Amino acid sequence: MNVLDRVLDEFAAQRPEQPSAARAAAAAALRANGLPTRRDENWHYANLRALDAVPKFAPSMPPNRTLPQLPEALDGFSRFVFLDGCRYPAQPQPAFARVTQLPFEAAVARDSLSAFAANGDGRLGLTARLFAREPLALRLDGDVSLELLSFASAAGHCSTDWVIDIAANARVNLVERRLAASAPSGTNQPSIDGHNLRLRIEPGATLTHTRLQQTADDVVHHDTLDVTVSERAAYRLRQVTAGGASARSSLQVQLAGRDASFDLRAVTAARDAQVADAQYTILHDAPGTRSDQLFRGIASDRAHVACSADVLVAATATGARVHQSLRGLIDGKGAEVDLRPRLTINTNEIQATHGATTGRLDEDLLFYLLARGIDEPGARSLLKWAFLGEALGAIDPPALRRAAGFAAAARLSDAPAQELLQ
Asked: What's the mean per-residue pLDDT of the chain?
């Protein structure tokens, strides 16, 4: 039985009653369009075989109610905690200023499944919708600092499905952290951590969104992010992928309104036999839109890191500005990095630059550091940290930047000196 049949069968068995409209639409889209395969161009480098090894997709056990030790809360941030896909504690959370919880079905009904979600690169996120125990819909208004932390225990499958609206002229700092524990010793069966997120950013709003994915080595992780940015709104994404046997990020940002902007700073660090793949699609649909994508990836040992950044500029997007910079570093005889910057431009009124480079540590720079008395492990560590610094340096607040640095450092073949992580 293939993965799609297993998913749909488990969904039917899990919910024999009438499913919600959102889940029913997700199941119908999966039946009609199937899951991605390696024959799909944007999934060529993803480790889809990892899904075959997942023993079960639906949560089969009651949610864990024993909270593990979590990272310290960020100063000035309100925090929602999810444990095995459920809010923790079980009783309603205290009210947070300028954070409104909405009925999930009504929030989803505001717009139907996009082509991205129904038959595009967002299809894998539909599985998270099928099995999410407690979907969440929020509206953030005004100045808000909010942390959403999801922890998956070793109990098995964990899915979350969130919809977040950013109100007009709001100034929001949103942090997502995903943590997952290893499966019990001797099971040799990976657990799965799946996440689906829909963001709608209204006119004049600014959203700074930091995502830290830090799961155990035997976890299969996938996340799907669908974003619409309205006129004069700004979306800043800082993403760090540093964990899991297999990790796939699928993102689509639609710059739908005049002068909308998107800024990406992304880091992927992988080691051992990990496969980490990211697909970023940016749609410039309106005049004066701007996007800047910066990706830095390091593959150590036998790891495979891949990143595709597709920018599609419509004929209506006159005066658009696009910048892409994708760089990969190979640090192991069996390591591999694949980068694909792609621009499709349908207007003459545009400023666009792009580039991608992949290579090993610069031997001249390494020799320079060795000649000045730095030992080889320290010199290699320093060069790797400088390579990642441009992206990691954009993360704020400092406590979160430090946590992201430690997460990335743990996936390198030799950890940077402690003073570099401060």
From this structure: 89
